[in-house]
Design brief:
about 80% helix, about 0% strand, elongated
């Protein structure tokens, strides 16, 4: 919760206040780097490395998807220090805008607030932010990033993009996008399940048996 709120605030501050960043062309978006962007990505990378360790230790609980997410996110954040598409790495940090609502949703379950009006409101905010920042914003940023990387490979100049670098970043970004769409479907199911009427649950259980 604290980590996601911190990096979201810092990422938004850098994106909106760094006027030079707004004027970057495709070459700067591919190879450009700033200390502010690097600082935010450093915090994100530290978290994703910790997340990888924790996910790997409890894979039977969290699943391999969580491990794959941690690995892919670490690759995307880490390669930004080469530097490589450091510009987009900061934009991808905004995926975490939905995380506080996910944390709140989990705590409401633990505090006996499952199915409450407050959890319904939080569930709507969770789905809205997850869909908005990860699916809509994320897909748009990935499309722009793919176009810039393609342009860089077609115009190598003095700074050609190594094939391994482009493929590593694009593959990791693709994994994150696929997981986001998959998890969004799971979230919808989870939120709806918490607000089923008792008779609906009984009916489903009878069908299963």
């Amino acid at each position: 919760m604290v980590q996601s709120c911190l990096i979201n605030t810092l990422a938004l501050a850098v994106i909106w206040q760094d006027e030079e960043r707004w004027n970057w062309g495709w070459e700067e978006r591919i190879w450009g780097y700033s200390g502010a962007q690097g600082g935010v990505q450093g915090l994100a990378l530290g978290y994703f490395l910790w997340d990888f360790v924790e996910s790997a230790r409890s894979v039977e609980v969290q699943g391999w998807g969580a491990v794959g997410h941690a690995v892919a996110a670490s690759v995307v954040s880490g390669l930004g220090f080469r530097p490589f598409v450091n510009y987009y790495g900061l934009n991808f940090v905004l995926y975490e805008l939905s995380t506080p609502f996910l944390n709140i949703h989990w705590w409401m379950d633990k505090l006996g607030m499952t199915g409450s009006a407050a959890q319904l409101v939080n569930g709507i905010l969770l789905l809205a932010t997850f869909g908005g920042c990860r699916l809509v914003w994320g897909t748009w940023q990935n499309w722009n990033m793919y176009n810039d990387v393609w342009r860089a490979t077609q115009n190598p100049g003095e700074l050609p993009v190594p094939t391994w670098l482009a493929l590593s970043y694009l593959a990791s970004s693709c994994v994150l996008s696929l997981l986001n769409f998959y998890w969004f479907g799971k979230m919808i199911q989870a939120v709806l399940k918490r607000f089923e009427k008792p008779e609906q649950k009984v009916g489903k259980e009878k069908k299963q048996h």
